Amino acid sequence: MNFPIQAITLDLDDTLWPFAPIGARIDQVLHDWMLQHSPATAAMFPQAAMRELRERAYVDNPHLHHDLSALRRLTLQHALQESGADPALLEPAYEAFYAARNQVEYYPDALDALQRIAARVPVAALSNGNADLERIGVAHLFAFQLGAREHGAAKPVASIFHAACERLGVAPAHVLHVGDHVEMDVAGAMSAGLRGCWINREAARWNHPSLQPDLQFDTLTGLADWLDANPAASATRSA
């Protein structure tokens, strides 16, 4: 399949790096931080209890589903309040979380493939998560980063895809969105008029009832190779 691509929007978590190890590290770092700075909070909310508190905050605050940072602060605030801790610990606790959240371990193929892709077409990060590309150290490879928090709504709503296309200055039909999630990434982008590329690292079955991805690869290297093999598809970068 060959079609003109003038820009790419790229998901982050579970596309460039797996999120599960980050989540486990966050739980451990926060627990260790509470042990040091607020032992009563650590005792009342060990890791499993803190996860339950976070899940409850998510269920109770659907208006914040696009803002994972706000939900994390709310979780920490509740834990500190319920354990009688100093409320001034909220921001330092959040900073401990955020430092751990931005310690990522790329999939083996991802960083090299990202560099190859970014050399061909502008790439914008488009994420529902709260990773910070400056902290992580790869912001220079992206035209910009647009998160659900900044936009005010999360994928798969069409408006976040359209906002990215507008900032890129490229019509949706010439933007390829790349991600791991069938609905939030690929089907959401295609429903918004973009092209969709599924990075299917787990050999999962495509299960959308009516849409099929324009492209599908088991690594990001597959997309980089496709761009190399189809130079006309990305020859419009300077247009």
From TrEMBL:
GO molecular function: hydrolase activity
Record field: transmembrane: none
InterPro entries recorded: HAD-like_sf, HAD-SF_hydro_IA, HAD_sf, S-2-haloacid_dehalogenase
Annotated keywords: Hydrolase
Name this protein carries in UniProt: HAD family hydrolase
The organism of origin for this protein: Stenotrophomonas chelatiphaga
